[in-house]
Amino acid sequence: MSENRKPLLGFVSKVPSGTALGNSGKTHCPLCMGLFKAPRLLPCLHTVCTTCLEQLEPFSVVDIRGGDSDTSSEGSIFQELKPHSLQPQIGILCPVCDAQVDLPMGGVKALTIDHLAMNDVMLESLRGEGQGLVCDLCSDREVEKRCQTCKANLCHFCCQAHRRQRKTTYHTMVDLKDLKGYSRIGKPILCPAHPAEELRLFCELCDRPVCRDCVVGEHREHPCDFTSNVIHKHGDSVRELLKGTQPHVEALEEALDQIKRMNSALQERVEAVAANVRTFSEGYIKAIEEHRDKLLKQLGDIRDQKENSLQLQKAQLEQLLADMRTGVEFTEHLLTSGSDLEILITKRVVVERLRKLNKIEYSARPGVNDKICFSPQEKAGLCHGYEVYGTINTKEVDPAKCVLQGEDLHRAREKQTASFTLLCKDAMGESMGRGGDNIQVAVVPKDKKDSPVRTMVKDNKDGTYYVSYTPKEPGVYTVWVCIKEQHVQGSPFAVTVRRKHRPHPGIFHCCTFCSSGGQKTARCACGGTMPGGYLGCGHGHKGHPGRPHWSCCGKFNEKSECTWVGGQSTPRSLLRTVAL
């Protein structure tokens, strides 16, 4: 094989103008933040110093792949398949992306060296006027020149010695300052198995670079060629993969940009909604505070009104008491100390005064009570457009003033819902105007007091209560309606439950002649007849009641219950009329 060097991958090439290489992301370790020292390339394509990786805490995982594990898939399809077995595997986490990195058998030092990062570090050092670069031979002095033939950085002393040797006399030496415009000044990559040989060949079977000694040794029978000859094929395959990856990068960048825009929109929306919430809550708080002040003022007015009434009643009773005592004391003194003549002389005045005092009406109970309650769940209307709750009530329900109303108050039908309304009033006979009172209702059969009927009480929130129940059997029932364990007006009362409503089997007509179409044999329960052999009633003829009625029972109310009882004696012509 003859090595055919092409300019495709020239070892030294110029950097295009305006290109910034050697930035911190390419030359500095993400852990120690210093320039890379023996950088290692992780499977996630992040680069970290060897010493920094060795300081990471390893962990043990279970490898079920079997055989010798490797961090890459290079040559895996050519390896001998071994039985699967559970083997302990040592791993670390990438300090950049937290990806799991399975360490090879050699540990961290067996990971791939990032030669590109090493080259960038050297370029970074060159831009710093040689700071950080030491001689490759003595590893002691600062670098001044570079041997382009050996690809070695040399100090002044080693450079002189390099030129004195016969083998290296004609090597090209370049000052470091002249290399600052180059993109690559890296050292030659040597074979790890044969450190004296440079990696110039590539084994297709093992899919890795090799040296000349490897070709004649371990890779003797393997297809190998110079790297410059195979780079086109492998470079193209990498470029194809890159073409498939780049759209994902663009899509992900667009997705992240959308997420960023959405996050900005979200923040704006949150701030707008928060402003609405603050505006609403501030307005609501203001409305509640105003309603609170209104309630407190109302409470103060109620207190003043009740206190004034009590003070007025107190003054009246005190004056009446004083008048009574004066009359009593004067009369007692007259009767005990006065002479007969004195008593007779003052009798008329005393009697008139005592009679007048005895006719004065007064209440021995306070004219007002302390019944003031706050109903927090009762609607109080709108305040600045906000619905507010909470009212102050001074009314107290008086069971003796409450009224029961409804058509079904004293009558009901079996298996049909009966209902009535309870109207709650206060002691003055005024409607309560609100709900919330504890209403107890019981419907009990008179002959089965241990089987009460289930009742439903609906609070209409306006001082009225809708009571309903469904009796199961006919009979007499007793209904109790109580408030605060006291019967309301008219309670308890009896309800007569009759059997289920009997519908009319006949028709509601004006006369038999019209409803039957002129049939002579048709009859009617009213008993009317017509000349000419007609057995049913007719307008203006004998027995016609003179108004519409039921043909089955003769009742005049269309919505009444039928009282007809069918039997063998019932004329069949009547049923025929019913059918019509």
TrEMBL record:
EC number: 2.3.2.27
Assigned keywords, A-Z: Coiled coil, Cytoplasm, Metal-binding, Nucleus, Repeat, Transferase, Ubl conjugation pathway, Zinc, Zinc-finger
Domain B box-type residues, every copy: 130-176, 186-222
An annotated Gene Ontology molecular function: ubiquitin protein ligase activity
Highest taxon listed in the record's lineage: Eukaryota
Catalysed reaction equations from the record: S-ubiquitinyl-[E2 ubiquitin-conjugating enzyme]-L-cysteine + [acceptor protein]-L-lysine = [E2 ubiquitin-conjugating enzyme]-L-cysteine + N(6)-ubiquitinyl-[acceptor protein]-L-lysine
Renumbered ranges of Filamin repeats: 394-497
Signal sequence extent: none
Residue stretches making up the RING-type domain: 29-98
Cell compartment(s), UniProt: Cytoplasm; Nucleus
Entry annotated with the keyword Nucleus: yes
Coiled-coil residue windows: 249-323
SUPFAM superfamilies assigned to the protein according to its UniProt record, in alphabetical order: B-box zinc-binding domain, E set domains, RING/U-box
Function of the protein: E3 ubiquitin-protein ligase that plays a role in the regulation of inflammatory response. Mechanistically, mediates the 'Lys-48'-linked polyubiquitination of TAB2, a regulatory protein of the kinase TAK1, leading to its degradation via the proteasomal pathway and inhibition of the TLR-mediated inflammatory immune response. May act as a transcriptional repressor in mitogen-activated protein kinase signaling pathway.
PANTHER family according to UniProt: BONUS, ISOFORM C-RELATED (PTHR25462), E3 UBIQUITIN-PROTEIN LIGASE TRIM45 (PTHR25462:SF291)
Protein name, UniProt field: E3 ubiquitin-protein ligase TRIM45
Species: Propithecus coquereli
